[in-house]
Input
Amino acid sequence: MPALSAVEGYRRWAPSYARETAISALEDKLVSAMTPPLAARRLLDAGCGVGRRLTDCGAAEAVGVDPSAAMLEAGVGLGKVASGVRTLIGDVHHLPFPDRAFDVVWCRLVLGHLADIERAYAELARVTAAGGTLVVSDFHPAAHAAGHRRTFRDDDGVHEVEHYVHDLSAHAGAARAAGLTPTATREAAIGPDVRDFYEHAGRAGLYAAHLDLPVVLAIAFRREG
Ligand SMILES: C[S@@+](CC[C@H](N)C(=O)[O-])C[C@H]1O[C@@H](n2cnc3c(N)ncnc32)[C@H](O)[C@@H]1O
Output
């Protein structure tokens, strides 16, 4: 079955997206550890999905942008200011914000859906304040090479969402061209923290076979002045 486009995939995944998965749980732990304290800082989550990482994040200002109305509506709500979170429709290729508007910017599990990441890095850098932090996460190239795909299940079965592999050097090159300096690179692998996800899905065999396989890549950058 061909992979769904990101637009169609997230339209269909939206109702159940907030349910954590092994990937999302590992990703959240990684990005949380790489994000500076958010109190008194302005935060943008570019490609925020249902906005689950923005709720109660503690930022002085928390803004989420995503092209999928279905995702926003399934989560914190579209165009709403709720629990200190503001959401709007937007694309990481053309972020609807002035230059340097945010102290911290996240772009989490989004870039793998883009064929080309240069323009996205340029936009992410543009809206990050000088000295500010960008944290990017992506589905790990090693997971893709091992045959893992970005999938979800609904009443019609299991669906794959289109994904483009960008290795670490592609991220680093696009970021450098945008005026971003890497400050930390980390990865998260399948391990005991997420064993329950595999067992509850009846996939203990996959867990055992792919133990220690890196599945999430995360990079933090400083925006140069
Ligand atoms: C795997 S979800 C991640 C959602 C959220 N960042 C999280 O970690 O829970 C990927 C999200 O990327 C969004 N997306 C896809 N293409 C995008 C684009 N060009 N600009 C911004 N977001 C995009 C999708 O709509 C979807 O909500």
Remarks:
- The longest strand covers residues 128-139.
